[in-house]
Write a structure and sequence with these properties.
Blueprint: H1 2-31, H2 35-54
């Protein structure tokens, strides 16, 4: 039983280490981008935010299912 727990704990620790490495790699990649690229990405995100904030979900009854 202890052997299985140690395997699980080592897998969790390994996945945490992989996640941290991926996070750092992503952070380094972002720091290499130019200010112009960052501006374009931020502009796109702001436009999407505005679009999603203004979105309204409506439900219409389907006439073909009414008998």
């Amino acid at each position: 039983m202890k052997y299985k727990q140690s395997i699980i704990l080592s897998n969790v620790a390994e996945s945490d280490a992989n996640f941290e490495k991926a996070e750092l790699d992503s952070f380094r990649r972002v720091l290499k981008t130019s200010y112009t690229e960052r501006f374009y990405v931020m502009t796109r995100l702001m436009k999407m935010d505005i679009m999603l904030r203004n979105a309204k979900i409506t439900h219409q009854k389907d006439d073909s299912q009414i008998l």
